[in-house]
Design goal:
Low-confidence stretches: none
Radius of gyration: 13 Å
Shape: globular
Distance between the termini: 34 Å
Length: 107
């Protein structure tokens, strides 16, 4: 695996939850604060890419995706984030399209 990577299923949960911590466990907010943002900042500081492994998860609620990846794009800039994150998946190609087309670069 790459030096800077996140496997959502093993590093966080195979059952991502809703948007906010107040709504239950495994929220997008918790993932963003504890894993996604710190790992993204580490990769950027070392001039590296961040690889995100999506497989192994049962499903992804849209609210989870917006609160985690959407917040990263809002804070760091959608183009910056898009240029520095590589998504890896066999099962969730629609997630990659959703994040890029509906969250980061909504037309």
């Amino acid at each position: 695996m790459e030096k800077y990577s996140i496997n959502i299923a093993s590093d966080f949960s195979d059952k991502p939850g809703g948007r906010w911590k107040s709504l239950g466990s495994n929220s997008g907010e918790l993932f963003y604060e504890t894993i996604l943002l710190p790992k993204f900042e580490q990769a950027i500081a070392c001039h590296e890419l961040l690889y995100i492994y999506l497989d192994g998860v049962k499903s992804y609620p849209n609210s989870f995706l917006d609160q985690s990846f959407g917040e990263l794009g809002r804070v760091k800039g959608a183009q910056v984030v898009c240029d520095k994150i590589i998504f890896k998946t066999q099962s969730f190609n629609w997630i990659v399209s959703y994040i890029k087309d509906e969250i980061w670069f909504k037309k």
